[in-house]
């Protein structure tokens, strides 16, 4: 195997592919990236057994075909350290790979390509094409609410719900719920739901850099595959049943609060400074057209601030995790935010004043 490539052409796909490479190496080869040369194209593959990313890059000229695996992090660190306009030449020398760029030379260890694990071909049950911007939007507006290491493993991911006229994502960690939908026109029947693992969601989002360009999604019973430009992304799905999110959304709210979104973000940011570092609780006292936000901590310190709002309903005192409120305000669009409440023990619904395509549910805290 031998090829010549510019640093720029190699570095971009290498950074994306290295993102899925296993950091806690259960098998030595999972720390490597697979390099395959075919004619004037180099393909790079990284995997952790659950998620696989294949990137492709053009060579300066046709190389000598072959395949080998090299340490992903070391190769990336070398590429980053080279000058911007560097030309990189790599060739296999028995059990090592020689990398040359100008006066720099590096010898890297290798492992055989035939030992590199690959995810089987996905037998697609549903195939859909849509704009990158559409999928990126619904992910960006909901992914923050995914659980991280919950024993309810089906919460450590994002529900992707596909119908003929809508693509919807839903995330919840048991304390809050986020959902966002976008209108699509797909030639499919019924409703299809899959749970995409947290890591896969975050890596897939990095691929979607051009909102106008299209991408293809293939859903099977066990995998999701995305073709985005020069990249092929595949992930196993979470095998579990996601909660019925429609039942979680409260419908009995009889009090509405409308506030300036950015002003409210700043109020929460300031009062959060003196909230309990572990529980992050703040108390909201709402009456007439004034919202008072109060935070306390175990050191007997207190922050208090008031902001004018448009409030319809009887006076209410309710506690929330301030981080959850800040997360929602940071992804909502529009100048104003609408919060619908029932009582101190019921979840609040947060959304844009005109409704919009996203909806958020936040459970209250006892303070």
Describe this entry's structure for a reader:
With 367 residues, this protein is α+β, with helices and mostly antiparallel strands. It folds into three domains: 2-115, DNA Polymerase III, subunit A, domain 2 (DNA Polymerase III, Chain A, domain 2); 126-247, Roll (DNA Polymerase III, Chain A, domain 2); 250-362, DNA Polymerase III, Chain A, domain 2, CATH 3.10.150. The chain has seven helices and 25 strands. The strands form four sheets. A nine-stranded antiparallel β-sheet has the order 13-10-11-12-25-24-23-17-21. Helix 1 (7-18) packs antiparallel against helix 2 and helix 6 (261-272) runs antiparallel to helix 7. The model has no long low-confidence stretch (mean pLDDT 95).
Main sheet: strand order: 13-10-11-12-25-24-23-17-21
Number of helices: 7
CATH homologous superfamily title of the largest domain = DNA Polymerase III, subunit A, domain 2
CATH topology of the largest domain: DNA Polymerase III, Chain A, domain 2
Round the Cα radius of gyration to an integer and report it. Answer: 25 Å
Please count the beta strands (DSSP E, at least 2 residues each). Answer: 25
Provide the β-strand percentage band.
Answer: 35-45%
By helix and strand content, what is the structural category? alpha+beta
Instruction: Give start-end ranges of low-pLDDT stretches.
Output: none
Q: Measure the end-to-end span.
A: 65 Å
Task: Give the helix level as a range of percent.
Answer: 10-25%
The overall average pLDDT, rounded, is 95
The CATH architecture term of the largest domain is Roll
* CATH class category name of the largest domain: Alpha Beta
Number of domains: 3
How would you describe the shape? elongated
Largest sheet: 9 strands, antiparallel
């Amino acid at each position: 195997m031998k090829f010549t490539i510019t640093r720029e052409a190699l570095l971009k796909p290498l950074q994306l592919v290295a993102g899925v490479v296993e950091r806690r190496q259960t098998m030595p080869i999972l720390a490597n990236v697979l390099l395959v040369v075919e004619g004037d194209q180099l393909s790079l593959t990284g995997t952790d057994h659950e998620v696989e990313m294949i990137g492709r890059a053009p060579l300066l000229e046709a190389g000598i075909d072959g395949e080998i695996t090299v340490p992903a992090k070391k190769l990336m660190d070398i590429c980053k350290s080279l000058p911007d306009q560097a030309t990189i030449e790599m060739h296999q020398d028995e059990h090592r790979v020689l990398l040359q760029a100008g006066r720099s030379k590096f010898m890297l260890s290798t492992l055989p390509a035939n030992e590199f694990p690959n995810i089987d071909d996905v037998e697609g049950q549903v195939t859909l094409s849509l704009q990158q911007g559409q999928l990126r939007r619904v992910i960006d507006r909901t992914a923050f609410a995914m659980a991280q290491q919950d024993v309810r493993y089906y919460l450590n991911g994002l529900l992707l719900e596909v119908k003929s006229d809508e693509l919807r994502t839903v995330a919840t960690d048991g304390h809050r719920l986020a959902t966002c939908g976008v209108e699509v026109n797909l030639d499919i029947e019924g409703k299809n739901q899959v749970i995409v693992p947290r890591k896969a969601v975050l890596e897939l989002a990095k691929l979607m850099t051009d909102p106008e360009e299209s991408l293809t999604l293939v859903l099977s019973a066990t995998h999701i595959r995305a073709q985005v430009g020069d990249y092929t992304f595949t992930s196993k799905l979470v095998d579990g049943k996601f909660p019925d999110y429609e039942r979680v959304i409260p419908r009995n709210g009889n009090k509405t609060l409308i506030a300036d979104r950015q002003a409210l973000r700043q109020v929460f940011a300031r009062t959060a400074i003196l909230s309990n570092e572990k529980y992050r609780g703040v108390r909201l006292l709402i009456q007439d057209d004034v919202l008072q936000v109060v935070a306390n901590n175990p050191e007997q310190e207190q922050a208090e601030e008031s902001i004018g709002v448009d409030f319809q309903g009887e006076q209410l005192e309710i506690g929330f995790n301030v981080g959850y409120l800040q997360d929602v305000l940071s992804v909502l669009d529009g100048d104003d935010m609408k919060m619908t409440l029932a009582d101190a023990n019921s979840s609040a619904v947060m959304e844009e004043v005109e409704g919009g395509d996203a909806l958020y549910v936040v459970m209250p805290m006892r303070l």
